[in-house]
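Title: Request for sanity check on Winged helix DNA-binding protein prediction

Description:
We are preparing a figure and want to confirm that the structure record we downloaded matches what your pipeline produces today. Could someone re-run it with the sequence below and paste the raw structure tokens into this thread? We only need the token string, no images.
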Amino acid sequence: MVQAEYTTQDFSYDGAHDAAGLPARVAIFADRGTTRSQIAQDLTGAGFRCTQGGALADLLEGPLTLLGDVVMVDCPVIDAAGMAALSRLDMRVSRSGAQLIVATSLNALDDVFAALDQSHPQILVEPSRAERVVAVGRVLADVSNERVREMTEEDRIALLRLSQQVDAIAQQLDQISFADDSAPERLSDFSHSFRGKGETVSTGHGMARYPLPDPSIVRQIIASRQARSRFFDEELFADPAWDMLLDLTAAHAEHQRVSVTSLCIAAAVPATTALRWIKQLVETGVFERVADPADKRRAFIALSDQSLEGMARYFAEVDVPLAHAA
């Protein structure tokens, strides 16, 4: 009982407020009523106001009324109707200035990512209850920062590193307050194989003045980086941006398209963390979101021309032994 009182004091805080000084409003959409109730309970306890939401099908029927400051959607499984609902919501949110958070599963990630191309949402992969609450606070904090000043690239990278610390706090919150929930799936639990070998200079996104290295060399570097986790805690070497740059460099030379799920796996960090990095790297021009011309329901991630040039110059300036130590 004493510990419960201590915990309450330790994590007491003021609720988030909107511009009018009222608690921030969150609209919740989920097909499972129990999930909607659980999310509402957690967010209400954190000081947010939960407004009327509903099932995903409600997003397709009739006009979308005032959504709130944040829209939280839970869709672990998605079909054609669900993708249409997300696309409509994506357009509505991008015009209203609200913030969108979508929780999904790794299996549905590619479809969800393809449906959301306008509102710059925060995507969570199999989040815990604490991670959902933290995500709402994070997007509201991002809005506040952008209202004060335009974020520079350095600011965005600093925010990403701060977000990693917040993720660690969320895990601690899970252990303290939500011990009944199962831990979110980690990307390191999955294996990923790559197919094919291409030429050292590829087509489609511009030609680098320096040739890219043979993709087999890049794959060897990736394998050596992954081998470290067999001997040390993998969190000691967490560097998702560089791991994703290496993966996209090899895939570009192999003429392979990279899905967002594949890139998340290559990042070797929790899926939600990887998606946050991808979002920021797309916004800063390091990565590009590329629509599939044959299927508008799909989208891929690729290196920008500037990043291709940078990776080509990097490998041109380091010899193979040094590159293997990258």
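Thanks, this matches our download. The longest strand covers residues 25-30.
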